[in-house]
Design goal:
One of its GO terms (molecular function) is protein dimerization activity. This protein is α+β, with helices and mostly antiparallel strands and 80 residues long. It has two helices and two strands; from the N terminus they run E-E-H-H.
């Protein structure tokens, strides 16, 4: 179990924004994969330095850091 990481997801363009909460490692890895794929698509169309590419990259960096910290926590708890 991880802390709740809340992100805002826009369901459809122009549609309502929905708050989502990541509480499991599986949800975290699924969000990381989704963002990786989205970043590739956005960067290909809009460029690597577009505002949207940078925003996705920043969220992805944050989630990857969170994942690494959780992985380190798990390895410490299993070695004790």
């Amino acid at each position: 179990m991880i802390e709740c990481y809340i992100y805002i997801q826009q369901v459809l363009r122009g549609g309502p924004a929905v708050a989502k909460c990541i509480t499991t490692t599986q949800q975290l890895t699924e969000r990381i994969e989704l963002l990786r794929n989205r970043m590739i698509k956005v960067a290909t169309v809009k460029g690597f330095t577009s505002d949207e590419s940078l925003a996705i990259s920043q969220e992805l960096d944050y989630l990857l850091n969170m994942y690494e910290l959780k992985k380190q926590d798990r390895s410490k708890s299993t070695t004790i």
